[in-house]
């Protein structure tokens, strides 16, 4: 492995490309970085507002992939969205209709709350540690 290697993207199975784009780019404000027609399929990538690893939105093809929608993490939180302002982004996500499974909590690594995308994937929203008063 070269020292310059970085994790560039993670594939996320979605019911269809357009519903993935609508949620990630519309509700969450991700940037559509690529949408390339490849004939039978499309190469679609989205990137969080602050940059970082991209999501490759992969339209489910067949029953096995359909069954994997929302289950790629085996029921665990498996995707992590880091923010520099937890309260700002938590409120914006609530306004956009994002469903949080819990109230924000403080951990040693920062302020965190678990949420689900409309496809069933569990995520953490993670911000800097909450300032104690």
UniProtKB/TrEMBL annotation:
Pfam family name, one: Glyoxalase
Protein name: VOC family protein
VOC domain segment(s): 6-128
Stretches assigned to coiled coil: none
InterPro entries membership: Glyas_Bleomycin-R_OHBP_Dase, Glyas_Fos-R_dOase_dom, VOC_core
